[in-house]
Amino acid sequence: MGYLSNVLFAIILIIGFGYFYLNVKKIIRNINLGVAVNRKDNAKARWKNMAMIALGQSKMVKRPVAGILHIIVYVGFVIINIELLEIIIDGLFGTHRIFSPLGVVYDILIGSFEILAFLVLFAVTVFLIRRNVVKLKRFIHSDLKGWPKSDANYILYFEIILMTLFLLMNATDLHLQNVPGGFSHFIKAGSFPISEFIAPVFNGMPNEAVMLLNESFWWLHIVGILVFMNYLYFSKHLHILLAFPNTYFANLNPQGQFDNLASVTAEVKLMMDPNADPFAAAPVSENEVPVKFGASDVQDLNWVQLLNAYTCTECGRCTSSCPANQTGKKLSPRKIMMDTRDRMEEVGKNIDSNKGVFVPDNKSLLNDYITPEELWACTSCNACVEECPVNISPLSIIMDMRRYLVMEQSAAPMPLNAMMTNIENNGAPWQYSQQDRLNWKND
Amino acid sequence: MSENLNVPTMAEMLAQGKQPEVLFWVGCAGSFDDRAKKITKAFVRILNRANVSFAVLGTEESCTGDPAKRAGNEFLFQMQAMMNIEVLNAYEAKKIVTACPHCFNTLKNEYPELGGHYEVVHHTEFLKSLLDSGRLTIEGGQFKGKRITFHDPCYLGRANNVYEAPRDLIQKLDVELLEMKRSKANGLCCGAGGAQMFKDAEPGNKEINVERTEDALETKPDIIAAGCPFCNTMLTDGVKNKEREGDVKVMDIAELIANAQDL
């Protein structure tokens, strides 16, 4: 084949990474649809969070079965990617097992890749069983009807195919390494604790046929990886990349602390300032969009909330721990994240097809995706935030949307309006006079 | 029947030129709710017994704004916050104790940005510090040997990571402290938070307080201990729903301690 295969390999690589790059740009553009929020403070605590929670998977093991299996797949994914480096160099320069001169180190590397690949196969099989046979409640939940359910299974099938190809590639290689007197370029290199059990399958086959199989497995494996990488953008699986920035930029304040809207602070201060001129016109500046209180659409959320939406891998731990969901209410924190992402992607496509400008489409995250009934069912208990293995906060989105309902639309449920009226009139959520606040002393 | 509680107000303190050691933020529930008023009084009895110099704002106290904020009304919250901060700052309040985790969370976390900087502690933390410094002794009394389970209030536990102070206090009562299957960071909400206390629940197949009460009853307790007036109401209703009010009591930790010493 000469240089043809190297060129072909380079082209496939460029297409694979190029398309991925274009989609990453879209993700970043969409995340930047959100409003600003400062999450650059306290870098030390942020790095620590990322190291513990994303890299160290500390929150995953709260549910030990899923947690340990996930760590296997995660470690497998990260470690086996070292092998990818060799595959890319071999592919580009027509070498074969370029790292094999590392000797014992190489044996250890290939050996551990193989064991991990086998463990990943095991873990992924258990995951498939949990989803499709045992049918854990959070995996058959109504949130996942249709595409999200298929998406989850496709990812698992993909991982099975990639790991199998990797092991078959090694098995054929080992078979050819063991041809008496040697065969072609298949030098003795590596250790194959798993594929040595597969290699005998090829006994009796012509060496040329086995070599053809070996090359096919090699190509399918690398092409498969590139396809999988590009599948991420269309799936819930982006967390393998975004978990890292997401944990870095996550909220560091106590979970009970909700942000104080700065735009409201300015107005309240003005109202309480005895020297303020009540007849003064509001300062007018050109092109200024009037401030909207709370969020009715993705552009009103902040960029970290949008990053959260892309990072969510729909595991449903939030929903399974949500008191409202457990008692049959419509609210599902996972659905809040999925809806936010779906709407964000819809807005992104709108921008793409309108030359970079969003053309109003008479839709919004509120009502078209998330209903007030869902928002009002939240007890703000923070169970979803606590559960999320990558520090996503569905609660902050719920609160921002409640703010819009109340401050822009006066659309709170009637009993809440009564409660707020009481606070306004007599400083308590019930209708008791402030003058009676100390009466308990003499009851 | 009025008992002899010593409850000075900040205004009275100021008139005498005194600054109390701690300001007791009673909260709306603690001031007006019949059940919660008992908790307020129990806490005051303990403060009186331990000779703690404290004062309340009395008629100058107003809602922290927590339910308004969680309902989405940031305007009303910030109005309340700024008015309260003006009052607190005028009295130069340094340390605040409250028996309501919602007031606690709001005062502690959401007031500083608006100009209110105080050391804020939950009453269980404050009682624990009295115990640790020897100003308060706790004995089991009537509760000795009883089975008690503690329900973590969301705004004390998950929201602010206070898990041990209430448990340490309960254990001082010589009781058997039982953990529910979901406790501490995994604790289930009582159903009252996020302004749910003031509205009906959305359609579903169960009330949250009943679900949580079932968790508590699974531990076969004599007493369900709470640290929040709203949790207290929700769990009391849950126990009634399960028709167990005859053999299971819902009590605040302050009540447990006060009753144990026959205060």
UniProtKB/TrEMBL annotation, chain A:
Highest taxon of the lineage: Bacteria
Alphabetized InterPro entries for the sequence: 4Fe4S_Fe-S-bd, 4Fe4S_Fe_S_CS, HdrC_iron-sulfur_subunit
Domain 4Fe-4S ferredoxin-type: 303-334, 368-398
Transmembrane regions: 6-24, 65-88, 108-129, 154-172, 216-234
A Pfam family that the UniProt record links to this protein: Fer4_8
Key words, A-Z: 4Fe-4S, Iron, Iron-sulfur, Membrane, Metal-binding, Oxidoreductase, Transmembrane, Transmembrane helix
Keyword Ribonucleoprotein on entry: no
Cited PROSITE patterns: 4FE4S_FER_1 (PS00198), 4FE4S_FER_2 (PS51379)
PANTHER family, per the entry: IRON-SULFUR-BINDING OXIDOREDUCTASE FADF-RELATED, IRON-SULFUR-BINDING OXIDOREDUCTASE FADF-RELATED-RELATED
Name this polypeptide is given: (Fe-S)-binding protein
Organism field: Flavobacterium taihuense
TrEMBL record, chain B:
Keyword Phosphoprotein in annotation: no
Domain Cysteine-rich: 22-108, 148-235
UniProt keywords, alphabetically: 4Fe-4S, Iron, Iron-sulfur, Metal-binding, Oxidoreductase
Protein name: (Fe-S)-binding protein
Signal peptide interval: none
Species of the source: Flavobacterium taihuense
PANTHER family linked: IRON-SULFUR-BINDING OXIDOREDUCTASE FADF-RELATED, IRON-SULFUR-BINDING OXIDOREDUCTASE FADF-RELATED-RELATED
Record has 4Fe-4S as a keyword: yes
